[in-house]
Design goal:
heterodimer; A: alpha+beta; four-stranded antiparallel β-sheet; two-stranded antiparallel sheet; B: 270 residues; 27% helix
């Protein structure tokens, strides 16, 4: 700000000059800049809420798979090992429904008990529109009642079953997901993983010494 | 010399124009920020509800002893409340053998378990028996816990010497009732059980009578969705959708190790 002296009266009192255009523009610019971090904060919260949603879905994908593998006969667990596979299709898989626990043959047998009978879902096929602009979700995918919902196509699940000593197996289920698209796929930064140990309680006396 | 005090009309006009432009942008950013905050708030609220339902259900189903009422949008299960009281074993006519065999002199032995009955249900406006807690709340899911007694015995139709029939008997005492979630648009429950012959997992529709089904239910498939739409059509609807399956650990062990466990443990120590 400039301070000027009134020439006519010779007064020594000073007067405040007006604010120049440049000053006003700079001040408004600074104020506008101050809004950016506030806005970032709000937007960041929204992103974190979405991440929390995906992480929660991933946690349940891990938990249910752990329970599923735990429910299998000890010798059948290895069959359910898989690399990263997209989560889609029936919630209760045909493979699970085909597992026979005891009987003359044991193991899995091919049956015609499919998901159409599984669970008593009602209603026919329906098309669930996928997320617009998200290439990971196939917007044309047909999602039947009893299938994982379309947003689950973001997720991939891996199951590892490793023997630990003579009586234990370690089950590790990892779920990764993609929040935006191919960029996530390269970075591969979102991951949820659970693991547990399962013991074989069958005594050799009951299995003819096979286990 | 030209007086530099104040601003010219042109300057004021330019500044006003700039101010208008900047303020409109600021308001625009503020509004979109408010919308995002509102959407986040709705999402958090929906997620809290869905988490509350699933966390409770996972814990309850994992530790369930039997499902006593299974329908598409309602589930009642029984959990062990504590050690079995010896006085609650209702002997058959002969008191020589307290708990086994389950048949004595042509009559069945009943075993009475102190349990916690847990009921999940979604508000159904057409159901007049709906508890007042959720009757007027759209898409609300409630969890009601009551202590009571579960009677277990051999069913007349089933194979003898297997406890395969469970029934709630006597009075129940309300322990807690709470609304876990609001704005639920989908709450589908589907039940699976192990075939008693070969242990294969099957839809309950393929297995036995209603009484036997309850005892056999081993896994519940849950499809839960909640959404809180805006009145404006062009806004994205905040929603959460979870599909998962939950096992009863007791049923897993009974099925995997059928040679060790009966349909209930016969010395009542399980």
């Amino acid at each position: 700000m400039k301070r000027i002296t009134h020439r006519k009266t010779g007064s020594k009192a000073t007067l405040q000059a007006g604010i120049t255009l440049i000053e006003v523009v700079i001040v408004i610019g600074i104020l506008a800049l101050a809004i950016i971090p506030i806005y970032n904060n709000i937007f960041g919260t929204r992103i974190q809420v979405s991440k929390a949603k995906f992480a929660y879905i991933a946690m349940h994908l891990c938990r249910e798979k752990i329970e599923e593998v735990m429910s299998l006969p000890y010798r059948e667990m290895d069959e359910f090992e898989q690399g990263y596979t997209k989560v889609k299709g029936p919630i209760v898989s045909n493979m699970l429904l085909e597992t026979v626990y005891r009987g003359a043959n044991g193991g899995r047998t091919v049956t015609n008990i499919g998901r159409n009978l599984g669970g008593g879902f009602v209603g026919g096929n329906r098309v669930v529109p996928g997320g617009g602009g998200i290439p990971l979700i196939d917007s044309e995918a047909q999602i039947a009642e009893g299938d994982y919902p379309a947003p689950y196509m973001r997720f991939e699940r891996k199951v590892l079953v490793k023997p630990k000593g003579r009586r234990f197996k370690q089950i590790t289920v990892s779920v990764r997901w993609y929040e935006k698209g191919e960029q996530d796929k390269r970075e591969n930064k979102y991951m949820y993983s659970l693991n547990t140990l399962v013991a074989n309680h069958k005594l050799a006396a009951y299995t003819g010494g096979r286990e | 010399m030209k007086n530099r005090l104040g601003m010219t009309l042109v300057e004021i006009l330019v500044i006003s124009g700039l101010l208008m432009l900047i303020i409109s942008k600021i308001i625009d950013i503020g509004l979109s920020g408010q919308e995002i905050m509102d959407e986040s708030s709705k999402l958090i609220s929906l997620q809290n509800g869905v988490r509350a339902v699933l966390e409770n259900m996972v814990q309850d189903v994992n530790s369930s002893m039997a499902i006593v009422n299974a329908s598409e949008n309602q589930l009642t299960l029984a959990r062990y409340k504590g050690p079995v009281d010896d006085e609650l074993i209702a002997l058959n006519t002969s008191d020589v053998n307290p708990a086994f065999p389950y048949y004595m002199d042509g009559q069945r032995t009943g075993v009475f378990y102190p349990v916690l009955f847990v009921e999940y249900q979604i508000n159904d406006p057409s159901n007049t028996n709906m508890i007042s807690l959720i009757r007027n709340r759209e898409g609300a899911i409630s969890r009601v816990a009551k202590t009571g007694t579960l009677k277990a015995e051999d069913s007349p139709e089933g194979a003898p010497y297997f406890i395969d029939y469970y029934q709630a008997v006597g009075d129940m005492t309300l322990k807690s009732k709470k609304v876990l979630a609001d704005k639920v648009t989908k709450f589908n429950l589907n039940y699976y059980a192990y075939d008693p012959i070969n242990g294969q997992l099957k839809s309950i529709g393929e297995l036995g009578t209603a009484a036997e089904i309850n005892e056999r239910i081993s896994m519940v498939s849950v499809h839960l969705a909640a959404e809180d739409p805006y009145e404006r059509k062009n806004r994205r609807t905040p929603s959460v959708e979870i599909a998962t399956k939950i096992w009863s650990f007791r049923k897993i062990q009974e099925n995997k190790y059928s040679e060790y466990f009966g349909h209930t443990d016969r010395d009542l120590t399980f």
